[in-house]
Amino acid sequence: MNVFRILSAALLLVSNISLAGQPNPPGQVQAGEQAKHQAYLFAHMTHEDYGRLYYSVSLDGLHWYRLNDSKRVFNDYQGHPDITQGPDGTYYIAGNTSDSSPDINIWRSKDLVQWDKHATYRPNLQATPNYSQALQRIGAPKLFYDKASEQFVMSWHTPHLNGTEEDPERYWNSQRTLYVTSKDLKHFSAPPQMLFDWDIGTIDVFIRQAEGQYWSIIKDERYPTLDWPTGKTVRIASSDNLFGPYRNLSAPISPNFREAPMLIPSPNGKAWYMYYEQYPGVSYGLSVADSLQGPWYQISGYTFFADWDKYSMPEQLRHGCMITISKAEYDKLVTHFGIDKSGK
């Protein structure tokens, strides 16, 4: 009888352990609470069709589903998609056909369904002050509309050294973030300017305004070593001014060898979700904080074990941008393109 009781107690303990759930990420809407952010759009590329435009959507910022039967949503687009919304509600997306293309292409949309060509911009990279050695390369254009100054900021990364067989990483270490401004995304300030005064490589940089400050979210593009352990991680810096100087560059928010960060507010507006890709196309990570200054911690997900994942994405997604949208916009996208709830 004692043996039976011991075995029963052991089985009950194992059962309770297997049923025990990890705490859910903060920021979700509770019963009786109204969502501050109703829905989300992830405009991205895919592993098999790199550089082309696809959509996934979410209602909670954690669980994402493909649209349009996993087909392109706009055939003309090429680039690393980044979307911002202007003061009149119009959406703009920037891209370029390759890093070696001299042009940045911009399209506009009223509903995120139909896109029309808006402008083409060709920066004079060598005219950038203190950066005459810039190579003719434009990586991952990003867009931000600053309500305070009523202007758009378009940024990208440009290197100044070619890689060599002995040191291919020097190309990436030499990346610097440049920007121009515009009132209408047709006419741009000249020449481009450098966003940071840091002597480190930066790519995938975007700007946000929140919590009374401006924030630059970056990928630290130096290669990780014992001398530079923050290499190939996502970090964040702050400034009182749109164009800096940006200071208080954070410790890594992500592990090494992550890129293409994306930042969205949680549905209740009380937390921040920072996504980033483990490249090349391996998985997505998610870090969470209740303030952009941190501290940040990582959430478990993208393991494809439902009892462990606290967030989920379809397989084979590559980087792009995430934005908040209204429930009406979400419903229109789902109605127009159709949604795949299988999670594949």
From TrEMBL:
Matching InterPro entries: GH43_arabinanases, Glyco_hydro_beta-prop_sf
Signal found in the keyword field: yes
Superkingdom classification of source: Bacteria
UniProt keyword annotations, A-Z: Plasmid, Signal
Residue runs in coiled coils: none
Signal peptide: 1-20
SUPFAM superfamilies in the record: Arabinanase/levansucrase/invertase
Protein name: Glycosyl hydrolase family 43
Species whose genome carries this gene: Catenovulum adriaticum
